[in-house]
Amino acid sequence: MAERISLKADILRALRNAKEHISGQQICDEMGVSRTAVWKVMKQLEAEGYDIEAVTNKGYMLLSYPEILSGSELMSRMNTKWAGKRVYFHKETGSTNEDARYLAEEGMLHGSLVVADSQTGGRGRRGRGWVSPPGESISFSLLLKPSFSPDRASMLTILMAISIAEVISALHPDLDVKIKWPNDVLVNGKKVCGILTEMEAEPDYIHYVIIGVGINVNQTEFPEELAQIATSLRIEKGEKAGRPELIVAAMEYFEYYYGIFEEHLDVSDFVDIYDRYLINRDREVRVLDPKGEYTGVAEGINDNGALIVRIPDGSFRTVSSGEVSVRGVYGYV
After folding, report:
1. What gap in Å lies between CA 47 and CA 276, rounded to an integer?
2. What is the pLDDT of residue 34?
3. DSSP string covering 47-90, please?
4. φ and ψ at residue 162, rounded to 5 degrees
5. Calpha distance 318→108 (Å, rounded)
6. In terms of Cα–Cα distance, which of 298, 303, 295 is closest to 264?
7. What angle do the packed helices 35-47 and 24-31 form, to 10 degrees?
8. What angle do CA 211, 158, 295 make, to 5 degrees?
9. CB neighbours of 194 closer than 8 A, spacing ≥ 6?
């Protein structure tokens, strides 16, 4: 299956990059496959909705393509060095994080990406469910095998949150994009993306890290219990948004930020950009600390990604775990 997806992706990439018709023989020579194999892939692509013109003695040209989410579509668009270069796609799955965990145990490479059109058993923080209807949302999990120590891994959530915020802002500049510390991305004050980072590690060694991302893209409605706190890009824009370009751009941003992160193994290079998105900044927050709840004003994050909170006596506390609620944003009680 992986080989077939790879060939289809390679042919689709060649069609996308061609400025004119590309001959079947040229495709055969470049990819080392038979004319029959190329013809079969062309027929598969046409069946999926790709408009491919075939002209005798000239070859093939991609005229238009549908808004389709598939492994070959994503791989044909990827321009990254390692993030998402290998895509494992499911029409439906229980959890992309669990799928990525299985791949990790089987020895799959750093940067492998699991994507699902529909996810039935997705989880948010603290085991909460995450709704991922088919054809409308994005569910993906990125498998990482870092060489740094486990105490650095939590900051990868910060990198992904920035990546998603930057992608949405770049593709949809008219939307008001914010981050609710540490890992929710909001649009116009409502949650549009959740991030769940999980790790398998020993005290001084990381076996793997999985970053799961769920994005509400083209939903037009939510269950009553979610309607006041969740939204989608389509609801906020009033038009459908493309899913493949969101995923591909997220991989490009994350790969770039990950490279910077590896230089210092902290988020010192990202504090300013994160704080610009931080909806908590300069606002009253309630920290749900197991040792006792308290309120204060969020000042931003520090170099390790912890939230800096100024409490009423003028001193500062850093929040590295637990939940933070923000007045005026969902979840505050």
Report:
1. 45
2. 93
3. HTT-EEEEETTTEEEEEE------HHHHHHH---SSTTSSEEEE
4. -65, -45
5. 36
6. 303
7. 110
8. 120
9. 124, 125, 130, 183, 184, 185, 213, 214
Q: Distances from the Cα of 142 to the Cαs of 1, 54, 99, 112, 197, in angstroms?
A: 20, 37, 10, 6, 10
Separation of CA 66 from chain center: 21
Domains in the chain, CATH or no CATH each: 2-64 (1.10.10.10), 71-276 (3.30.930.10), 280-326 (2.30.30.100)
Q: Does the reported pTM lie above 0.85?
A: yes
Reported as a single tens digit per residue, the pLDDT across 92-145 is 999 999 999 999 999 999 999 999 999 887 555 545 555 677 889 999 999 999
Tokens encoding 135: 């054809």
CB 96 within 8 Å of CB 114: yes
What are the pLDDT digits (tens) for 215-246? 999 999 988 888 889 999 999 999 999 999 99
Element (H, E) at 177: strand 177-180
